[in-house]
Amino acid sequence: MNLLHLDASARRASFSRELSKIYADTWRAAHPDDGYVYRDLAASPVPHIGEAWTELCDYVLAHEITDIGRYEEAVRTPAQRQAWDILEPLLAEVVAADVILIGTPMYNFSIPSSLKAWLDQITFPKMSLKGRSFVVTSARGGAYGPGTPREPVDHQERYLRDFFAGHFAVTDVTFINAELVNALIDPRLAHLREAHVESVEQARKEAAR
Ligand SMILES: Cc1cc2nc3c(=O)[nH]c(=O)nc-3n(C[C@H](O)[C@H](O)[C@H](O)COP(=O)(O)O)c2cc1C
User: Fold this and answer.
1) Cα 111 to ligand 1 centroid, rounded to whole Å
2) pTM for the full model?
3) Of 29, 73, 78, 181, which residue is most buried, by most CB within 10 angstroms?
4) Where residue 27 sits, what CATH number does that domain have?
5) How many domains in the chain?
């Protein structure tokens, strides 16, 4: 079993990082001899895809290449080789993983651009990552659970679930969300501090479990 652990928060003192660490530490204690790879997408951002990357993608689509092991056939120019050399190690980490753990904040109702840049690098048309599972530990300033007024604008969990199912054919996806973080900062949300603490406590327990 291999665990790939990613973090995407711009903050070091971050709830999504704390939760992903609890999950990873627990997992590693239970699998001491197994593989573990860590990547900090905020501290060491992956580049945005460029034109040569799109050429690789178009080639894979036009030639109906769905086997990840054959993607390199798309490399025909020095610029494409450069693009390949950036994406290949990122993709190899994903392919080698059984569990992909992502610690991510909600930014602007969605995911940070650092995580989106990583998704753009590793995602090719009609690829399959079947057999793997994703675990997402997230933190949000507000509350987006079922029945809340903001539920319809949760483009973080909804987006990632749709993405993993639609692009990777993976539905084994677990979300652990710490909510109402802004209650610690925004005076108008001060009355929600207790609910925030409860949400974080619950998320810590879920991450350890
Ligand atoms: C740039 C930025 C955008 C944010 N946008 C939202 C948002 O749209 N909705 C929300 O509920 N919280 C938002 N927040 C609050 C964060 O989700 C919250 O601070 C969370 O704890 C960040 O995760 P972290 O603790 O792992 O850094 C935003 C915070 C930042 C810094």
Assistant:
1) 9
2) 0.97
3) 181
4) 3.40.50.360
5) 1
- Round to whole Å and give the CA distance between 181 and 178: 7
* CA-142 nearest atom, ligand 1: 11
Residue 55 CA to ligand 1 center (angstroms) comes to 34
Chain segment 121-175, per-residue pLDDT in tens: 999 999 999 999 999 999 999 999 999 999 999 999 999 999 999 999 999 999 9
Binding positions for FMN: 9, 14-16, 106-109
Q: Which domain holds residue 37?
A: 2-208
- Of 21, 107, 150, 193, the one to substitute when testing ligand 1's pocket (max ligand atoms within 8 A of C-beta) is 107
Q: What are the structure tokens assigned to 44, written together?
A: 């060491």
What spacing in Å lies between the alpha carbon of 171 and ligand 1's midpoint? 25
